[in-house]
Amino acid sequence: MIISFKMHHFFRRLAVLVLVITFLFSSFACTFSWIGLPRSSTPTEVPPVPSASSPTPTPVAEVTFTAVLPTPLMETETLVISMLDEVTGLALNPTNYPMQSIDNQTYRVSLPLVLNTVVRYRYILTGNTQIPEDTSADTLVRYRLYYVTGPGVIEDRITSWTGQPFIGPVGNIQGEVLDAVSNSPIPNIMITAGGIQTLTDAAGRFFLEGLLPGVHNLVAYALDGSFKTFQQGAQVAQGMVTPVPIRLSPASIVNVTFTVSVPKNTMQGVPVRLAGNLMQLGNTFSDMNGGMSTVADRMPVLAALPDGRYTLTMRLPVGSDVHYKYTLGDGFWNAEHKENGENRLRLLVVPMTDVSINDTVETWQAGPSSPIMFDVTAPSNTPAGDIVYIQFNPFGWTEPIPMWPVGNNRWIYKLYGPLNILGSFGYRYCRNGQCGSADDIATVGDTTPGRSVVTGLVAEEIQDTIAGWSWLQDYNPSELIGTEIQARNGSFMAGVEFQPTYRSNWSISISQAVQNVQALGANWVILTPSWSYTRLYPLVFSTQPGKDPLWNDSALMINQARALNLNVAVFPSPQFPGSASGWWQAAPRDTGWWLEWFEHYRQFILNYADLASISNAQAIILGGEWLAPALPGGLVNEESSGLLMDAENRWRAIIGDIRTHFNGKILWALPYNSTGSLQSAPSFLADLDGIYLLWYAPLSTQTNPIKSELETEAGRLLDEEIAPFQAALQKPVIVALAFPSANATATGCILDAQGGCLDWLTLSRPNPDMSYVSLNLQAQADVYEAMLAAINARAWVGGLISRGFYPPAILQDKSASIHGKPAADLLWYWFPRLLGTQN
Q: Which domains does the chain have, with CATH numbers?
């Protein structure tokens, strides 16, 4: 019997709400406003109030900032303190104040700042160019924080300038943040000192490494305002660690109602959003495309009132300083302005009782240019539920903005401003905010200049038609030879693993992504939250907003999957600045470094064990191919990794620690590359509950093999390699597949440009396309069908997981993601039958 089926139409029925892929060089985030946009104000006299406007008069206090330079300035150079606006974008609306020389390395300025606010600032060296300050790790100072509680004096030590390598003594701060009422640890608190930022983990721990010796202003700040801000001086000594215990008082919550009148030329029915500096107002606390930090899709939308006004009631923490603005886009595009064209940024310090705020948007425009209407018709094969986004390129690609649907595949977006700064600029369309991946075929990839438009005094309407979407095409229905599928017991794992790459604008797409997984008939979803390695020595390993999901985002993902009755496994995965192998090669790997590495890994994995426990996940997965140098017998470039002699005991201790934090299953992700590769498996696997087998072993030596030969080889490997291993270990083995949709995928080696083998993740989005790799959707489906058939005949196999799922959009690309591909059709057919939920 031959069964013909196609699931692509099913996924089209599912509403996909997505955010945008972000890519931003941190130095670019600080410099483009100086080359493509008007320079920020640099007043010769300090204005009487900060740039933010307040609904009611707000008291101010004079704060004196003193900056100590690493070296004296040249005659042509000056020093400014740059007050930053994270709502509009750190690089888009700074206000610079010149500082006065006290001696050749000390500068000072006094500013009137609003009481009970937390200001964001950094120092800039101005001359022929403008150069922001740097850390001892030669990374950009995103910003420093100062909590204004009254008149104050603060002394900052500038470590270095961007482009000038740092050499000198440093010290460290470490501590933990506890709830002053419950005494429980608080995750996701931003800690800053000396221009360095970090976030607390599940145990409330934080580490600030590489600080200059001296006193630093240390601030603990809740991203959502739920705890009162903490501030104190911290003395750092050379080569020493300063302990700083912190207790934060939880803030009370009140109702704040925002009601706003909008300009008469505002299109009726379009979403009016509230952009702000808190997490719940769209702030990602990361550097995104174009230097922006806020994302439209994460901002709350106001409800329209019958009289034409808009309103929103939010529960906000008492004492939070809320910098906010109204917008038809994000914090920059189509955000409100003053009549004179200046950026509008409002300020509310949340009072102790419920409050109503009545605002009026003066204009969405800036300058004399008239609004531009973009009207686009999308192709008929656009998946139902997909949202068309528009992305603008005035000085580099900024964050995509969701367009407004008008029906029949038509989308519009009226751009009001800021158009006074642009002249001509580029724009493009994409699906679900995935510009650079899910593009209009006329403007593919991040190097495209896009379509072109010119601002003018006369209102303009641009009508476009998208001829097609990249990586989206119809494919022929799969054909399956009817097979008697053996239903397994409830312990069988049938599911999907999300790809480890993450962007902070993906969070809104996760709900629909887990619905897609559920629609396959799966019973498990594997989530892959991460921390990032940002420094080798001293080792820095922590959450990096924008690259790693924040604690709240990870918890939300788990809760969304659990709400759909999916089992959840948390598979923590690190992010590296380059390749994992290159990182290991560059590491010192001496005794002291390894001791530090094990402690950082322990904190990393316990952070996610706590997350899994609190969120009621069913399993946590350790291991992975990247860990090979840290396992007994580990190698780097075929030489000993220098691992500690007691590494085996350290791994057993970590597993024991996890069991004290988490009651679910603990699996180990074990790579299976070739015949005999399982013989070197570490002996501590006996302490775990199962093996998550990362299958990379080839099923053929042919580029386009026969499907029956793939099944035969899959069965042989399972019988001769995996079965004896499973029998000896007496643990369940779950087969996890990562086969890209490309020629030669069955060989386990898709060649790179140098003739080596590509890492399968290289083909994942948002990485650029590898043109020398040939797309082959059927090759991926054939491997899956062979593996499914082989597993079906072997009842001892504990499950099958598809790895590399790309959550934000259907892409029929070369990656291992099965989202919207023929391989997904196979899983939709097989999973319910393997689980016994369908005959």
A: 253-360 (2.60.40.10), 488-834 (3.20.20.80)
